[in-house]
User: Fold this.
Amino acid sequence: MLWRELDMLAKCLLVLILILLLTLFIYTQSRGFKVVRYRFINKKLKVDHFRFALISDLHDEDHGNYNEEVLKALHDEDPDVVFLAGDMVTTSMELEYHSTVALRFIRDVAARYPICYGIGNHEEKLKRCPEKFPGEYDKYVSALKDMGVSMLTDEKVSIEEAGIDVYGLDLEHEYFRKLLINPIPGDYLKRKFGDPDPDRISILIAHDPEHFDSYALWHPDYVLSGHVHGGIINIPPFGGLVSPQLKLFPKYDAGLFEKDGTTMILSRGLGSHTVPVRINNKAEVVIVDIYRE
Assistant:
């Protein structure tokens, strides 16, 4: 009744105020990041305590002055190693490629911490489409190697003092496609890496969490993933709204998931792509502490 009594100017002003309030709400929700912590006990650890940071899906985004606040958060936590779980850069349908912020950030991190980098679908596209992005993947990888980054494309690196093996999965394009989920074969990881050593901690960096059930068949201790951006809009108690494969309420959106002795740590990511919005879904840096007992 009250709405009908308002004149046209008052209605327009009220709508404008509501639009401005909504814009401000979305802006504040989509800005900034938080630090999330997880703690595990694993008797296979060769040292008393091992700490790592997990960062995914930066998408060349800047959280202020080349991610100075993110760097400060890392320095405050002082991890033994930083794991990058893919999509640090952005490649788009318009054949655009952005990596300036990502490379500066990785350079600053690598100056202080060892980095193991598993690629995501944006790096995979850069590698798969040299005719669209001529020479860019090789330049990117070369720059990372000059920084001392361990780029793991279906490769393993060992952290001997801690008894940890880190595997980086290079997932093919056919397993990233939208709408139609193409599951990876049950022996997929075994064919790529062989069997993980049961006496050592195995960490698999696998960007896409959609295939977690298949990853668990290989029995790594931990899977580090990203890709889903927390489902963009988090709706309790249902979770994330939509995945990059355009799947509503994806089973794996963010947080911890367990299956057959394997734990997946799924980051909400640090940036955004295509839909630059986050609601009730703050970007994050993940800190993981593993203790021997």
